Amino acid sequence: MLEAGPHGTKPRRIVSPHNIMLYGFLIVAALYWLLPLYVMVVTSLKGMPEIRLGNIFAPPVEVTFAPWAKAWDSACTGLYCEGLKVGFWNSIRILVPSVVISIVIASVNGYALSFWRFKGSEVFFTILIFGAFIPYQVLIYPLVIILRELGLFSTLGGVILVHTIFGMPILTLLFRNYFASVPVELFKAARVDGAGFWRIFFQIMLPMSLPIFVVAIILQVTGIWNDFLFGVIYAGTRNFPMTVQLNNIVNSTQGVKEYNVNMAATLLTGALPLIVYFISGKLFVRGIAAGAVKG
């Protein structure tokens, strides 16, 4: 009796031309993006005498955190030598209300435009989305006039208002497309049971919407935290966010150019968006895949 041959799919080779090309490309791309970060980290941990030797890729012979302490506490950001700590708390005071207000309003807008269509809702949505593609630079001067008339120019409230307005169109699009992917039978069943606008929103839609809220939070946090233009124009000198103060530190031309302090200040400024991505990266992908770009 003949023995049967092996069954099942043919095992894939671990080492193959395809895998070599794929992983080779990924390694080269990772090195390309990580090399500047490596240079920033090692430079921020060196003293100026070691930096003057010129080997930017060498690890620090003697690790020092003095540049980090100076960048945070006493680096000059213009007329004031108070470090980045002032700008950090200004950025927090701008970030938190801007993110909360814009996401709350946009989530309700997206929900209403998905399930509670009203006369002219499509026209309203089209106008709202059109606003997402207007260049910020076109509206700088009109916003200066509006904020001046409202008494909000050179205040944190004015910057919060601007970020909330500019975040609304794209967030509304995200929430509308996400809610549109929710089975309409759930909405109809809730309506049959007598649930109204807010009850359906809070008891049905919100518990299902964690991924898209994470997407919205990441987009807003990174966009607002990394903003320079609105902060330098609308905040006022005592309310400058962290990015504006970083620019003042790096571009200072007085005295010795302290590259270690500049690198430490840059890393401190970029730390928050990196932390947000590391913590919520998987939920971000889930939110995108679950309907954030579907319509």
Give an overview in words.
This protein has 295 residues and is an all-alpha fold. It folds into 2 domains: 17-64, no CATH class; 85-292, MetI-like (MetI-like fold). The chain has 13 helices and no strands. The radius of gyration is 25 Å and the shape is flat. It starts with 16 loop residues before the first helix and ends with a helix.
Write the layout of secondary structure elements.
Blueprint: H1 17-44, H2 48-51, H3 66-73, H4 85-115, H5 121-132, H6 140-150, H7 156-180, H8 184-192, H9 197-205, H10 210-225, H11 229-234, H12 242-250, H13 259-292
Helix pairs in contact: 1-13, 3-13, 4-7, 4-10, 4-12, 5-7, 7-10, 7-13, 10-13, 12-13
Concise overview:
By secondary structure, the chain is mainly α. The radius of gyration is 25 Å and the shape is flat.
Mean pLDDT equals 86
Number of helical segments with 4 or more residues:
13
Oligomer: single chain
Biggest sheet layout: none
Number of domains: 2
| CATH architect. name of the largest domain | Orthogonal Bundle
Radius of gyration, in Å, reads 25 Å
Q: Do you know the CATH topology of the largest domain?
A: MetI-like fold
CATH class of the largest domain: Mainly Alpha
Give me the count of strands. 0
- Helical content stands at 55-70%
Attribute tags:
295 residues, MetI-like fold
